[in-house]
Amino acid sequence: MKILAVLALVCGAMSVQAAETDLIGTYAVKEKGVMKEFLKVSR
Questions:
Q1: Long-range contacts at 31-37 (CB < 8 A, ≥ 24 apart)
Q2: How far apart (Å, rounded) are the C-alpha atoms in residues 35 and 43?
Q3: 9: Cβ–Cβ under 8 A, 6 or more apart, which residues?
Q4: What is the Cα–Cα distance from 33 to 43, expressed in whole angstroms?
Q5: What are the tens digits of pLDDT across the range 1-43?
Q6: What does the pLDDT read at residue 28?
């Protein structure tokens, strides 16, 4: 499920030709009411 969310994010960003800097950041998922770091994108 998490992988699908990441793929959707990346594909969505590519389809609108987002700048590379638009993707940089930390992405989190909510598990059992707690936010946990899931993916960190850096340059």
A1: none
A2: 23
A3: 27
A4: 30
A5: 677 777 777 766 665 566 667 778 888 888 888 888 888 888 7
A6: 86
pTM: 0.47
pLDDT attached to residue 13? 60
Nearest to residue 6, comparing CAs of 34, 22, 28?
Answer: 28
Q: What tokens were used for 26?
A: 């930390």
- The partner residues of 40 in beta bridges, in order of sequence, read 26
Closest CA to 25 of 35, 40, 37, 11: 40
Helix (H) or strand (E) holding 13: helix 2-15
Considering just the CA atoms, what is the radius of gyration of the chain in Å?
11
